[in-house]
Design a protein that fits this description.
five-stranded mixed sheet; binds ligand 2B7
């Protein structure tokens, strides 16, 4: 069907919206502020698609005083013709059915949800009301929905017009969301990013609550994005940009080299979705760039003895890739679906970069010489750093075998990526943990008393402290600027203390140490806090033998477990690790199948401290509340649960 043959009949009907209201998380990820803003993105995406197809170059978003939001575009207007299969207007189907999309859309680019047209109905389903005005084929149409499927004002014609476009107003349903407060910053960041990716379209944001207003318009799209990122750096050359189209994949790339920054920044997008985890397009980009530079060096005899690696060629590089492709070949991978999987994208991008970059280097000799000199400098620095690191490592290895502490009960396995180190408060709990551990992969290091407060101490003071030198040697990867995450002997470092203020204090001291002297341990997610259960629910037979037992971390599961154990249940409340037998400690707190671990993945130790205090502090009610609110773990907050019991 040709595009302009489009009419109300090309809408396919599928399921209704009750599902969206029942399980909003499935459609918008969560019902917190994140999910709330998804409602805006869904509507904006449709306006954006219309502009992308070449219809309309202005999109306005208005946040009203009551946190309802209006989005308007200057596209063709949402079709209002009657769909003969259902007898209903297309506009109604678009807002009330999932997966409704014009048939022509199969060929069109998919939007961020990966599916055309789902967005409007999801936003509608989760809003108190949605009010839509469509300026379509010379008529003004209006329709209004309440909480999804209920049509409070059926489609009506309000008169003739010369305008074309769509205006959608919706008010997020407070029964669904934990907050309905729209964030100006979030929306403006999103629109600014959209404006970079969709050049020559003007985005306007108006906040009627504060009077704030912003306009985003970029004549040169992602090239201007690069200019903004690199504004304060010393550039090696200009922003270089390429565009190309192959195998149905449209590619835009902009890049620039700078001197002062030794890192590489590559941001990639596919159909306006930021592919945070990269994917085939980024791989193709790297391959193409490396080959272009190396081939240029070879064919111009500029090579030195050192062979350049990809990283040498990307030092100081800022690049943005933006791809568009049809839904048919679009594949997102990974847990968060933020990695491009489409195989064809790899060769399309690598061929494009290779040919355009080769051409550019040949046309711009001075730039090419500067770039190659920089790459060769990076390679020299890389080799020198590697040598220094090797030397430090050899020295450390020699030392470390001598002073492994006798307090440590090591794991039998040398599979470091499977091993776990439990740092346990006190010798007595240490002894219990030693009996309850999995000897193959779990090591136990008991701590005597409170560790030293390392905040503000110099490395030599810390090395002289027995407790910390033991921890450093046990982890086996050095400390301070000599710390090398690749050498760690444990994949998980688990702090296990009593659930009281002393325990919390010990955790804070250890976390402060890790944060200050082994930071990658925390930033790369190797540090955990074990959370022992609050309750044990059990039943005894007439001889006093325990016949059933279950553990609970919160009141809800306590009630559930009481029911499961059945009549005659007893409940005991744990106060410390010392109250547990080795079997109980294993079953509740150490065994990966049952335990509750909280991953410390935050950058700010102050946040760690406040959360840990809540979690482990003496205020049991706070702890329960915190656990209930934060550790229900469908979403990762600052802490995540490792395994749900
Ligand atoms: C939702 C999907 C299926 N749609 C169209 C046409 C134009 C159009 C839209 C839109 C949000 C806020 C202002 C196509 C596409 C539905 O089919 S959605 N414009 N704008 C929008 O939602 N903005 C369309 C072909 C011919 N005529 C109109």
């Amino acid at each position: 069907m040709a595009k302009n043959d489009y009419n109300g009949n090309s809408i396919e009907l599928l399921e209704g919206l009750e599902g969206v209201r029942k399980r909003p998380g499935m459609y918008i990820g969560s019902t917190n502020a994140n999910g709330l803003h998804h409602l805006v993105w869904e509507i904006v995406d449709n306006a954006l698609d219309e502009a992308l197809n070449g219809y309309g170059n202005k999109i306005v978003v208005t946040i009203h005083k009551d946190n309802s939001v209006t989005v308007s575009d200057e596209g063709r207007g949402i079709p209002c013709d009657i769909n003969t299969k259902t007898g209903k207007p297309a506009i109604e189907l678009i807002f009330t059915t999932l997966h409704s999309g014009g048939k022509f859309n199969e060929e069109a680019y998919a939007n961020s949800a990966g599916l055309h047209g789902v967005g409007s109905s999801v936003t509608n389903a989760l809003s108190e009301y949605t009010d839509v005005t469509s300026f379509y084929k010379g008529e003004i149409y209006h329709i209004r929905f309440e909480k999804g499927e209920k049509i409070s004002i059926p489609l009506e014609k309000l008169g003739k017009t010369l305008k074309h476009g769509t205006i959608v107003t919706f008010k997020p349903d407070k029964e669904i969301f934990s907050t309905t407060e729209m964030s100006y910053d979030r929306i403006s960041t999103h629109l600014k990013e959209a404006a970079f990716l969709l050049k020559k379209v003007k985005f306007i944001l108006i906040d009627e609550r504060s009077g704030f207003k912003d306009e985003f318009y970029y004549e040169n799209g992602i090239s201007e994005y690069i200019e903004e990122i690199n504004a304060s750096k010393r550039a090696l050359g200009p922003v270089i940009s390429f565009e190309g189209m192959d195998q149905g994949i449209e590619v835009s790339v902009a890049l620039q080299y700078c001197y002062d920054d030794y890192s590489e920044t590559i941001r990639s997008y596919t159909n306006n979705v930021h592919t945070v985890d990269g994917g085939t397009h980024e791989v193709g980009f790297r391959i193409g760039l490396t080959k272009a530079v190396n081939d240029y060096i070879d064919s111009n005899d500029l090579g030195k003895k050192i062979k350049l690696e990809g990283t040498d060629i990307r030092e100081g590089l800022t690049a943005i890739l933006s791809l568009r492709m049809s839904e048919k070949i679009l594949e997102f991978e990974g847990q968060t679906k933020s990695k491009l999987g489409t195989q064809a994208a790899q060769v399309v991008v690598s061929n494009l970069i290779y040919s355009k970059m080769t051409y550019y280097l040949n046309e711009n000799k001075e730039f090419a010489i500067r770039l190659i000199k920089k790459c060769q400098d990076s390679a020299t620095a890389r080799l020198a750093a590697r040598k220094a690191k090797e030397e430090a490592r050899t020295k450390r290895k020699a030392k470390e075998s001598v002073i492994l502490s006798d307090k440590l009960t090591p794991a039998q396995s040398k599979e470091y990526d499977k091993n776990e180190l439990f740092i346990v408060e006190g010798d007595s709990a240490g002894g219990t943990a030693k009996k309850g551990r999995d000897p193959k992969h779990q090591a136990i290091l008991p701590l005597r008393g409170k560790p030293l407060n390392t905040d503000g101490l110099t490395i030599d003071k810390i090395l002289n402290n027995l407790e910390f030198s033991t921890i450093i040697n046990t982890i086996g990867a050095g400390v301070g600027d000599k710390f090398d995450i690749e050498d760690i002997h444990y994949n998980k470092i688990i702090i296990m203390t009593d659930a009281d203020t002393d325990g919390a204090h010990i955790q804070t001291l250890l976390l402060t140490f890790f944060y200050n002297y082994m930071r990658p341990l925390i930033t790369e997610g190797h540090v955990y806090v074990a959370v022992p259960p609050l309750y044990r629910v059990y039943k005894e037979d007439k001889f006093g033998n325990v016949t059933t037992e279950l553990y609970a971390w919160d009141d809800k599961s306590l009630e559930e477990n009481k029911k499961k154990v059945g009549a005659g249940y007893k409940v005991s409340r744990y106060k410390g690790l010392g109250e547990m037998s080795d079997k109980q400690l294993k079953n509740t707190t150490m065994d990966p199948k049952n335990r509750l671990l909280i991953k410390i993945n935050i950058n700010d130790p102050l946040i760690v401290e406040s959360k840990v205090n809540i979690l482990m502090g003496k205020d049991a009610d706070k702890r329960k509340k915190w656990l209930e609110q934060n550790v229900d773990f469908n979403e990762a907050d600052n802490f995540i649960k490792e395994v749900k019991k």
